[in-house]
Amino acid sequence: MSVVTCQSSTLRGIRELSKRRPMEALYNYLGGTTGSWRVTEAATRSGQPLKPVSHIEIVNGPLERLPLGTSWLLRGVVSNTRYVSREERDALQSKQPALNRMHATCAALIPIKKTAAWWSLAQDERRDILETRSRHIATGMNYLPAIARRLMHGRDLGEQFDFVTWFEYAPRDSAVFDDLLAALRGTEEWKYIERETDIRLERT
Ligand code: HEM
């Protein structure tokens, strides 16, 4: 693979991060001209668009080089949960599937940024909106195990998106995934989202 060495502040930030956090928590989503996932659709739901790309590559751990043809890089770390109760955590653990299932050849990459108003709330107020009033966790749970997911946090890395969300499912569950998104996007929680891009993919 052709590569170009990049001494940008982004990569310096990644090296700094890798000193502080386990490397396996970091995920890099590279948008460009090559990759393991081919873009089938991309839609800017709100806020500034991302440059259109044909492929996405996912790299776990620190990145030393950006492949030639990379247009953008989204980074996030898998972190501790903020809102789930013990009961919800147990239910999730018993129901949620692993990523990389053979039949799950469709995926969605949905980076999200929430508003300053959201971040000014206290933890209990955010839980009230996310779950008590919007039923994010309860609704999402109904779509397991069809949908496998990875939630990554970018805010503390100074990334342009607060979250990078990744979902995998079988082609026959594409409409099911759209139903889930329609349900979540109609909730109070989504009023606190100021930037969202929805990129659909298929495994190459
Ligand atoms: C597949 C079913 C889903 C399940 C089971 C699910 C479950 C969860 C859970 C348990 C959390 C809370 C994590 C915590 O306590 O910190 C969460 C957060 C989140 N989910 Fe989902 N989710 C699903 C689908 C989605 C979808 C389709 C999206 C967006 C496109 C999404 C976007 C997010 C975001 C951005 C957060 C972080 C919210 C915040 O911390 O402010 N989820 N999800």
Architecture overview:
It is a single chain. The chain has helices at 9-20, 86-95, 116-119, 123-133, 136-141, 174-185, and strands at 3-5, 26-32, 37-46, 55-60, 65-67, 70-77, 106-114, 148-153, 163-169, 193-203. With 204 residues, it is α+β, with helices and mostly antiparallel strands. The chain has a single domain, classed as Alpha-Beta Plaits (2-Layer Sandwich). The protein has an 8-stranded antiparallel sheet with strand order 6-2-4-3-10-7-9-8. Strands 1-5 form a two-stranded antiparallel ribbon. The chain is globular, with a radius of gyration of 17 Å. Bound molecules: protoporphyrin IX containing FE. Protoporphyrin IX containing FE is lined by residues 81-84, 92, 110, 112, 114, 136-137, 140-141, 143-144, 147, 149, 151, 163, 165, 180-181, 184.
List the total number of helices.
6
Q: Which fold name corresponds to the CATH topology?
A: Alpha-Beta Plaits
Q: How many independent structural domains? A: 1
CATH architecture: 2-Layer Sandwich
CATH class: Alpha Beta
Chemical compounds bound to the protein? protoporphyrin IX containing FE
List the strand order in the largest sheet.
6-2-4-3-10-7-9-8
User: What is the string of SSEs from the N terminus onward?
Assistant: EHEEEEEHEHHHEEHE
Can you give the mean pLDDT? 93
